[in-house]
Design brief:
Layout: H1 2-59, H2 64-70, E1 75-76, H3 86-101, E2 118-130, H4 133-149, H5 163-198, H6 203-208, H7 224-232, H8 236-241, H9 275-289, H10 304-310, H11 315-340, H12 342-356, H13 362-389, H14 407-410, H15 413-418, H16 431-440, H17 444-459, E3 473-485, H18 491-497, E4 504-513
Antiparallel strand pairs: 1-3, 2-3, 3-4
Helix pairs in contact: 1-3, 4-9, 4-17, 5-11, 5-13, 9-16, 10-11, 10-17, 11-13, 12-13
Length: 514
């Protein structure tokens, strides 16, 4: 009987031991599964961090000269070779991902514990944006952002001209050109009529009206337009530069962004900077970054702001175009002033009568009066541009104090231009201010691409950037990577429950832009 009890007690105790052992294994499996799940979530967070670090590291290889020279971030997608291949950037992305994924592979990694046990299986750049996309919009956005972040550049008061005034200036210039063309046609017609009358026989008139010897002879009056015509034939550029040397540097334009069909990126970036304020900041960026005729340039191409406005391949042609545009502005404004001034209108009428009154043709006298006003406006405009190029200032809208020429001095304009001293004109807008107005008259798309022309041209002259092309410059990327996460705490649950030993796939996508 005692032996039977002992056997039952031993059996019961053994059953309890087995029960608690199985229970303990199950609890341990659950705990290990929970720990593995937590580790997996940590691995996902780790891959997100790895993706961000790799993306940042890829764009950290930006073009150094571009940043130092123009404050613009971009990655050369051609790697300096001039041939764009996104696979080159993908290779750098794979390198950074792999190096950071396996911390034990590097020096000093022996003996470290890697709780994540990740293995990179695939990565790619799914999309990218280029500096030249949308006619240079990413460049525009960076330039405006730079100006916003650097308020000390705008510490001085910058004269701005609103859109309405710009359009008004254009209307004045167009009115001057139209009036000049119409008046020249009228004068030609009247001159032909005058010559026709002079050829008619005057014998009968001389018999009926004998000449009175006591009549005083008419005093000859010089026509200032004759001297002005001779002055025009000398060439406008030589007149307004005072005969100083004008750069004749020419650049090849075939490979510049504004002259070729550009490749496009596959990402659309947000346009954070818009409107008139952003446009004004962009123009200031251009005036700060690029030299002009009155601002000494280190590069071979001297007149770079003039290139932004004109887009011609040579310094001389760009300066000629800008001078023509400045004359267009000043002629319209000066002609408007002449029409409004009764004093100038009266003087023009008296001189016109003295020049044409003997012909008895009121229409010819009126046409001559108008021609004199147009000529005076042109002469004053030549003088204005000459002063601007000499470093002086000219007010946008003139008054009696700032007006310089008269009909008496118009014939001597050539000698006046030779002795211009810009330091004497200290009131109004300087040459840079007028360039700012001309930039406002340009299309924004033209300015963006021409600025990229100059950036590419100047960088290719520097060591380390000889193969730089703006259309290869990457400003944003979108990436995707895949990892295999091998189990660490899942071995016991796999053995107990008979689960497979395969790892878990983790995908991460990310994007970054300058």
């Amino acid at each position: 009987m005692r032996m039977l009890r002992h056997e039952k007690q031993t059996t019961w105790r053994g059953s309890v031991t087995v029960f608690f052992s199985l229970t303990g294994v199950l609890v341990l499996c659950v705990l290990l599964a929970v720990v593995e799940a937590v580790r997996m979530q940590g691995a996902k967070a780790q891959t997100a961090s790895l993706e961000g670090v790799a993306n940042f590291s890829v764009l950290a290889e930006y073009e150094k000269n571009l940043l130092e020279e123009f404050e613009i971030f971009a990655l050369d997608g051609a790697g300096g070779s001039g041939s764009f291949q996104i696979q080159k950037s993908e290779g750098r992305l794979r390198y950074y991902l792999k190096e950071n994924t396996d911390p034990l592979s590097g020096k000093g990694g022996t003996g470290l514990f890697d709780p994540w046990r990740l293995m990179l299986t695939d990565c790619e750049i799914q999309g990218y944006a280029l500096l030249t996309d949308e006619q240079g919009e990413p460049f525009y956005q960076q330039a405006v952002a730079y100006m916003k972040a650097t308020p000390q550049l705008l510490a001085h008061k910058i004269p701005q001209t609103d859109t309405g005034t710009i359009r008004e200036l254009e209307v004045f210039g167009e009115r001057y050109e139209r009036s000049q063309e119409e008046n020249e046609k009228r004068l030609d017609t009247l001159e032909a009529e005058k010559k026709k009358q002079e050829k008619q026989p005057e014998a009968s008139e001389s018999e009926d009206h004998p000449v009175n010897d006591d009549t005083p002879a008419a005093i000859p009056v010089k026509n200032p337009l004759t001297a002005l015509g001779r002055l025009k034939r000398r060439g406008t550029l030589s007149l307004v530069t005072g005969g100083t040397h004008v750069s004749k540097t020419t650049i090849p334009t075939g490979a510049l962004p504004s002259r070729k069909h550009l490749q496009n990126g596959t990402l659309k970036l947000e346009k954070k900077n818009r409107g008139m304020a952003a446009d004004a900041l962009f123009r200031e960026y251009l005036l700060i970054q690029f030299p002009n005729y009155c601002k000494e340039a280190k590069e071979e191409l001297k007149y770079q702001v003039e290139y932004l406005i004109s887009g011609k391949p040579s310094d001389q042609k760009n300066l000629q175009y800008v001078v023509k545009r400045l004359l267009f502005l000043r002629e319209g404004l000066n002609y408007r002033y002449c029409l409004q001034q009764q004093r100038l209108n009266g003087a023009a009428g008296e001189l016109a009568l003295a020049l044409t009154g003997m012909f008895g043709m009121p229409a010819l006298t009126e046409a001559m009066r108008h021609a004199l006003l147009l000529g005076l406006a042109y002469g004053e405009s030549l003088l204005d541009v000459r002063i601007l190029l000499a470093g002086g200032k000219i007010p946008l809208f003139k008054d009696a104090a700032s007006w310089r020429l008269s009909f008496e001095t118009l014939g001597s304009l050539g000698r006046i231009l030779e002795h211009v001293d810009g330091s004497e004109a200290e009131e109004g807008l300087d040459y840079t201010d007028y360039l700012r107005i001309l930039l406002q008259m340009c299309k924004r798309s033209d300015l963006k691409l021409r600025a990229l022309d100059l950036i590419q041209y100047r960088l290719q002259k520097q060591d380390g950037s000889e193969g730089f092309q703006a259309q290869n410059a990457i400003v944003a990327i979108k990436t995707r990577a895949e990892w295999s996460c091998r189990p660490v705490f899942y071995s016991l649950p796999q053995a107990v429950f008979g689960l497979g030993a395969g790892g878990t796939k983790i995908w991460q996508s990310g994007s970054i832009a300058y």
